[in-house]
Design brief:
Blueprint (H helix, E strand, L loop, with lengths): L7 E3 L6 E3 L16 H5 L8
Antiparallel strand pairs: 1-2
Protein name: DUF2256 domain-containing protein
InterPro entries: UCP037205
Pfam families: DUF2256
Length: 48
């Protein structure tokens, strides 16, 4: 698969786009953050 054809999402914290990664293949629907740093810095009450 070519990198240009990979799905893209925008991070819920920083708003930057990020591409699908193989490690997210089973949980892509639940992925909301581009990195562990953004996940830790999410706004309190923003969800699980």
């Amino acid at each position: 698969m070519k990198k240009a054809a990979l799905p893209v999402k925008h991070c819920a914290v920083c708003g930057l786009p990020f591409n699908w990664r193989k490690k997210w293949s089973r949980c892509w629907a639940e992925v909301r953050y581009c990195s562990e740093r953004c996940r830790r810095n999410r706004v309190a009450g923003g969800g699980p």
